[in-house]
Amino acid sequence: MKNQQICDFIIFGGNGDLAKRKLLPALYYLQRDDLLGRAGRIVAIARTELETGAYRQEARTNLEQRLPAGDFDSATWDALAEKLHYQKLDASKPEDYARLDAFCREGGSTAKVFYLAVPPTLFPAICENLASSGLMNDESRVVLEKPLGNDLESAQLINRQVRAFFKERQTFRIDHYLGKETVQNLLALRFANRLFEPIWNSGGVDHVQITAAETIGVEGRSGYYDNFGAMRDMVQNHLMQLLCLIAMEVPGSMDADAVRDEKLKVLRSLRRIEGEAVSHHTVRGQYEAGTVDEESVPGYLEGHGTRAESRTETFVALKAFIDNWRWSGVPFYLRTGKRLRANFAEVIIQFRNVPHSIFGTDLRHNRAANRLVLRLQPEETIKLMLLSKIPGVAEGIRMKPVALNLNFKEAFDIPRTPGAYARLLLDVLRNDPTLFVRGDESEEAWRWVDRIFAGWNDSGQRPLPYAAGSWGPDAADELIRRDGRTWGPPAEVSL
Ligand code: BG6
């Protein structure tokens, strides 16, 4: 259901880290590309006493410092600044909402987006006050950011609290990976081309790898991170969403529920990893001191804000199976970690080799044959590896893997709106929830992840140590090597 109304965009936590790092830059780029036509007033809300003029000045300085050199221009800023307002509000005080309501009425728009960039403990009070103040109507939308719970039970509680006021169609749960260009391209590649579908199954695919590797540590976020860890921070949401998009059936249309119904079926078909399987199919690690990008960095436990003896994992690798007709027996290897050797995120679809080689050399063990590599970052590329004859007449037919390479920068010579948040904020304004996570999806992902935590807790083992700047614990290599496979070649990482 698309919506043409002009919307006020109200950001709770308007002075916070997320607003500064992601939301304001995203709004800036939408303004630059003339895509903010549907936005009425953008109202930043926080508890601090601040005039709109002062807020605008802070926002401007923030953008000047944060945007890549050359991206800030005064005309775009002036147009955005005109829309940007600040309102002081204490989430628990009804009178503050009445003031906000009066302010919004002056602007004349009817629809409102409430972006809750605040901890979930504040959701009930905010939703209740929005409802009783009359700020909320059937056109309103609410945007929620993770962390939305830290297990199934707490996620269900948050969902119930929000559902008491907002219908599911009004609720937009952000997973910023879904806004990344290559992730949407995965959908285009699969469903706009005939080529892959006949082999996109256990008959054609040997295995799938999903990697999100980071060189950064937990930096200033250790208070949050130490209670979450890599599984909750990255796997339960970003990696599992990628897995869903790779594995789902063709939806009937790009309608939001058609897409999300198919993703949910994948989550429900994921084989539980529990009991004995936890130690065989998962590896968790925690970084120790080491060297990243030629700089010595301290270990996780030496960082500020982490608990002494913390067992929080900063690395996870796991092997998952989807028990349905399409994927029966195909392993999905997932891995993510902080303080790894390189910064990259990619999906590898490794196709099976030919059943019989007529070329003398044995192709069956050549893992590079027919591999589709979708690189999400740092650069956005899609490569299809094919075996090709090495040119020359001397030695018969010798093979080498070569890449058909789709580099978006080269293929599309048009300015792009950078960043996943820009795309997602625009979708909220358009009232299109296709790229947002539905409550039942999120709960199903928690259900699966909770089993793994139960297994880890039962084993009583600490996460395995790995040196910062490595590829994680050796056990992660062993997890895949045991099956006669290896993680995506590091040589491809340093492009
Ligand atoms: C966030 C996590 O959701 O994603 C962070 O909380 C992580 O810990 C970040 O660093 C990674 O996002 P991106 O877009 O840089 O891959």
Number of helices: 16
Which descriptor suits the 3D outline?
A: globular
Spatial arrangement of strands, main beta sheet: 16-15-14-13-7-12-11-8-17
Main sheet characteristics: 9 strands, mixed
Radius of gyration: 24 Å
Name every ligand kind in the structure.
6-O-phosphono-beta-D-glucopyranose
How far is the N terminus from the C terminus? 42 Å
DSSP, total strands:
17
Strand content range: 15-25%
Write up this protein:
With 495 residues, this protein is of the alpha/beta class. The chain has helices spanning 17-32, 52-66, 74-83, 94-107, 123-133, 152-163, 181-192, 222-225, 229-247, 256-269, 276-281, 408-411, 420-429, 439-459, 474-481, 490-493; strands spanning 7-12, 39-46, 84-88, 111-116, 141-144, 171-173, 205-213, 282-288, 290-292, 295-297, 315-320, 332-337, 344-351, 371-377, 381-389, 399-407, 464-467. The strands form 3 sheets. The chain has a 9-stranded mixed β-sheet with strand order 16-15-14-13-7-12-11-8-17, with helices on both faces. The chain has a 6-stranded parallel β-sheet with strand order 3-2-1-4-5-6. β4 (111-116), α5 and β5 (141-144) form a beta-alpha-beta unit. It is globular and about 80 Å long. The model has no long low-confidence stretch (mean pLDDT 92). Residues 176, 212, 214, 233, 345 line the site of 6-O-phosphono-beta-D-glucopyranose. 6-O-phosphono-beta-D-glucopyranose binds next to loops.
